[in-house]
Amino acid sequence: MYKYFVVHKPFNVLSQFTTQDGKNTLKDFFDVPVNVYPVGRLDYDSEGLLILTDDKFLNDYLLNPLHKHEREYWVQVEGNITSEAIDQLIKGVTININGKMYDTKQCFAERISQPAGINERNPPIRYRKNIPESWLRLILTEGKNRQVRKMTAKVGFPTLRLIRYRIEKITITDLLPGEMKILSHTELYNLLQIKKDNPYVKINDRLWQGGTNGK
Fold first, then answer.
1. Exposed, middle or buried: residue 79 (CB in 10 Å: 0-12, 13-18, 19+)?
2. How many Cβ atoms from other residues are within 10 Å of residue 53's Cβ?
3. pTM for the complete prediction?
């Protein structure tokens, strides 16, 4: 049977299990079978939700831009962000992705108070007395390389801290950085709102029920 883990990736941890330049990796925090890997990635300097699995079908599904699943981020930015900047984020901005200009899709954006239960980052963000800070809630249905950071920088408010809080209905509400929980196949697919009548799911279910792991 496939295995599914939901983890809260800490700050300054690579979204992989192999070491690189002496940096911390998922292996330093999470004990999972050797054939389990992250679905997508979070940047080294970002925190929050990652799904780990050996379900290659799920990996392909969630990384396919046609499926447009929601990703919710809590973003601390430098400066007192304006309504005009938030409107720009909602409508979409032009950013550089791999040397090409890209227009981001419309998204949800709002200013929020610092989310409850968010612990101080380790190491902490450098405090600058004369520069205010703001928190944003962003919900995207796409995930380009360092997209959130590029979006906030484009509207004049660089990202200081980035936390992925949610993917569809899966959240890190009950997980501290470095913690993990295990979900069943049914639980995970329901929380991701992957419909049973989807042809992809029918194939995946047959493989899962047969215990073949796609082999």
1. middle
2. 23
3. 0.88
pLDDT tens string 153-173: 999 999 999 999 999 999 999
Q: What angle do CA 127, 137, 57 make, to 5 degrees?
A: 115
In this model, does residue 60 exceed pLDDT 90?
Answer: no
**Residues noted as catalytic:** 43
Q: Kindly report, residue by residue over 73-103, the tens digit of the pLDDT.
A: 999 999 999 999 999 999 999 999 999 999 9
Q: What single-letter amino acid sits at 151?
A: M
Q: Which of 92, 161, 107 is nearest to 133 (CA)?
A: 161
Long-range own/partner contacts, residues 88-96 (CB < 8 A, 24 or more apart): 88/154, 88/155, 89/136, 89/138, 89/151, 89/152, 89/155, 93/151, 93/154, 93/155, 94/154, 95/144, 95/147, 95/150, 95/151, 95/154, 96/150
Instruction: Check whether 124 has a pLDDT greater than 80.
Output: no
